[in-house]
Amino acid sequence: MTTADNATSLSTSESSEPPILHDQGMPKAARAHRSRTAKKNALSKDLNVTVSSSDQALLTKSVITVKNVMKEQNAGSTANAPSISDAGVSASDALPKKPGQLSSSPIVDQALDNLLVMIRPERQDLLQGPCITIHVGGTSVINISKRAAMATSSVLHKHFTANPESLEYRFSRGQVHPGAVRFLLIDWMQETCNEFEAYAIPAQKTFGEDVAILCAARLLGMERYCRHILTGYIGYLKTHLPSYEEIIAIEQNATSDKDPLWTAMINHLCHDRYKGLIPDAEDFEAFLEKHTRLKKAMESADIFFAGYAKKRAEGREKERRQRWEQNQAEKRQRIAREQLAAESLKKKLDEKGSGLMSVTADEAEVLRGRTRTR
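-> structure tokens emitted (374 positions)
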């Protein structure tokens, strides 16, 4: 032991034990008792030091054993887990899976569900199992949880139910934006499944991004998660004249001629053009020449609205004539009743002469009219 150790031990012993008295002047029996006590204390110290050393050695051995076991487990799990550096893989995907989720079978039995009413453990379970790839032309979106996709997308649920061993789905080039597909099925999906409470798809930073998200959601059958965005933009297109950039974005992402955004925009543009409310009519006509789909849609809408207006005008004219004919018929019936009542009343007056007599309601009406005319 070094000098510093000796000093430390000395200071410790001095502070923990009572001071030692000198042997001079002490009785022999007292010195013998003191000697036995000192030997007993020394033996106890040696025993404590020995036990502490054995415990320390046992603890060190246990730690080394645990570390070796952990290294072996980490080596096994690393070989089976996907790489975090792969595209489309989150940090949670690289964690060891539960024993029941290590199966490599592509078949998944998953019902179509609603994330917004599921609890977090149920949503987290959707991220387990095999992954699928969605191809958009030559671009592929990988590492999409098959179970989560089947639970949220009616289109993917129908496809993978009919093809249970399939791990791929394809869109044609330009049909949908790959980034929108990735946002819906990976970014938003993983985040909302791990949150305490699921939330709907949030609005993006730009009009074009929102329209691309709505297009992808419509083609995937995930409209329920972005209905609030669709409702807001439909109201906007019904009340505001869109810019040329917004028109192009809607035209590129319209899924069909019955797409809600496309229909709302076409109707508003046709109405404003008919009323002369478009501020740059000449530039707009030149713009239409470069966008044949928009031009044809507006022409079809004009034809529809012209026929609809004509049909409404014909319907109003028909209703007006029917009301006139009904009024004429009622007038003729009233005149006929008055003539009959007058003849009947005249006959009664000739028979009765003076005095009381009973009359009908029509006859009373004739009498009141004759009284008023006097």
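Residues 87-94+101-199 form a domain with the Potassium Channel Kv1.1; Chain A fold (CATH 3.30.710).
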